[in-house]
């Protein structure tokens, strides 16, 4: 049984949308670990995890953190700045991961380090940051924010770009420029097959 699971949280549209992403990250990592000894499968699950983390981070940086700064005042700015800094650490690690070969101990160790960085960050968002924001913007605001977060991820880069700006409006432009290049690279990358994805739903 994996120790990587979303925390108990108060729920609500925005928290649920973000927490669902967090759980997907942990699920993909679980599949990576279960595939030890199968370099091809590990490459696919590693790429899927990177894809999810990259899109998720951009969605938060473009939608959620500006809302925290707007509605939570000075506290919101501190929380957003801290979250951006934690994202930057993970982006740097994901960028390093691309130079390592799946199936090696080095690749496995770095990916575990990445998930170990993500877990406390994700827990803090689910238990502290997002409940504060959701309370401030109300149920209707949370529904709108969740929809915007989900929509933004569709246009986000799918790979780590640690040197790119992490605040709008510059991040928006950088993301729009990087996304087509990432999607072209994705066409030549290995992702889990539909059969492999279906296996984790059962």
From TrEMBL:
Residues 154-174 are annotated as: Disordered. It comes from the Eukaryota. PANTHER family: HHE DOMAIN PROTEIN (AFU_ORTHOLOGUE AFUA_4G00730). Pfam families: Hemerythrin. Transmembrane segments: none annotated. Residues 14-133 form the Hemerythrin-like domain. It comes from Psilocybe cyanescens. This is Hemerythrin-like domain-containing protein.
């Amino acid at each position: 049984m994996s120790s990587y699971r979303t925390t108990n949280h108060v729920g609500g549209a925005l928290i649920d949308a973000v927490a669902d992403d967090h759980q997907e990250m942990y699920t993909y990592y679980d599949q990576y670990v279960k595939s030890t000894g199968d370099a091809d499968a590990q490459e696919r699950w590693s790429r899927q995890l990177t894809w999810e983390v990259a899109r998720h981070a951009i969605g938060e940086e473009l939608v959620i953190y500006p809302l925290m700064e707007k509605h939570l005042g000075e506290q919101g700015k501190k929380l957003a700045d801290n979250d951006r800094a934690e994202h930057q650490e993970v982006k740097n690690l994901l960028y390093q991961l691309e130079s390592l070969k799946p199936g090696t101990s080095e690749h496995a160790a770095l990916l575990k380090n990445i998930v170990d960085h993500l877990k406390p960050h994700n827990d803090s968002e689910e238990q502290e940051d997002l409940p504060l924001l959701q309370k401030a913007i109300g149920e209707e605001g949370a529904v709108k924010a969740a929809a915007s977060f989900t929509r933004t991820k569709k246009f986000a880069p799918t790979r780590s770009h640690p040197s790119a700006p992490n605040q709008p409006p510059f991040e928006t432009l950088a993301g729009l420029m990087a996304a087509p290049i990432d999607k072209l690279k994705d066409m030549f990358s290995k992702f889990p097959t539909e059969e492999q994805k279906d296996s984790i739903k059962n």
